[in-house]
Give the backbone structure.
Amino acid sequence: MSGHGTPIPMTSHPCGPLNGQAEVPGDKSISHRSLILGAMCIGETVVTGLLEGEDVLATAQAMRDFGAEVTRDDDGTWHVHGVGVGGFAEPETVVDCGNAGTGVRLIMGAMATSPITATFTGDASLNSRPMARVTDPLALFGTQAVGRTDGRLPMTIVGAREPVPVRYTVPMPSAQVKSAVLLAGLNAPGETVVIEKEATRDHTERMLEGFGAEIRVEETEEGRAITLKGRPELQPQVIAVPRDPSSAAFPVCAALIVPGSDVLVPGIGLNPTRAGLFDTLREMGADLTYENERVEGGEPVADLRARFSPNMKGIEVPPDRAASMIDEYPILSVVAANATGDTVMRGVKELRVKESDRIEAMARGLRANGVAVEDGEDWWIVKGCGAGNVAGGANAPVETFLDHRIAMSFLCLGMASQAPVVLDDGGPVATSFPIFEPLMAGLGADIRREG
Ligand code: S3P
């Protein structure tokens, strides 16, 4: 597969203790939403701590394509001069969202109820992912979509000229689908209601409220019902993006499995809809503590301290926790390989439609590096080797399938294996964690670019 330019083969060598402070970048979910909601206000939204990864930069460019002015100061402060709800201009060229499922799905929702037409594309990974999960509910507003077979990108969306409000129950646990419908509901008259059976990350709801929309959330018999009043005048905001718990997961988990490590990861957002991994690690026996717990910008935040934990045990991860750690199963499986006993992960079929089929990608790479894995359609089990007992040294490079989290997970595996772990392409890491290599090197990791 191609899509990120020339592949960048990488090798992660076994290393000594990881020590120090890991300042991970801003939250990817909140960064996308800051730019999109900023573009839907009249006036200037100011964003600090924005994740400057390829995914988010693609969303910034997309917002320019739709008529917003998006600029960056030398100190990393971003300014978005928005066009207001319903004010998007029609892009003159194809909108390229790169590798970003969140970017494309949220932007499709945001433009779906404006009288404009836009064509979206992405890299080979994004162009193979299902979009009907978004275009089906958007059709209820009156939006039309024409894509490739099975609803794949490239795809043209024709916004509804006279949108009607919608009541929609999201059939799978997906914050992207929920958010796309809510963003479309912004420019529909009346009340749009989205119901989710399982709670997923709630950044869109929190941020819509912050931007001044009338939104209420109720627990009902059908699930979590979110009601949004259409056609608000959103108010520009000053946003400090918290650091990303999904990125923090990598230095935290690496520290847990590399002997002698002690790493502090400061200022991590611990919104309960995102923090499932950390609960799971603690249940496995990880030496992971929360220091300096506080509330910042309405979100719980703490400094995470992770120390080498040689006695972790596999557990059955509660399936109802899946949504709160959906992006963290790949790195959890690396920790599981270094624990004793089985780690059982059920109710996770969404992993099959991420940037790659993450169950398949992890199972293949783990097996090739000496870890036993069993898997089925919506479950998988990693058979722990015990601390320090993962062989590594697969015959062929691990395939990363244009998936940043697969790449970073195997780079962490190599740090604690007996022989190095080699990847076919570490380039996708830049989509969400562009400073991963220097940050991990600063802690003591030994990751080398080959060739
Ligand atoms: C995201 C939602 C999740 C997650 C993705 C970010 C978001 O996707 O995997 O990395 O910001 O809304 P799904 O909505 O497909 O579960």
Notes: The first strand starts at residue 10 and ends at 13. Residues 29, 102, 174-176, 179, 201, 326-327, 350, 354 surround shikimate-3-phosphate (CB under 6 Å). The longest helix spans residues 245-257.
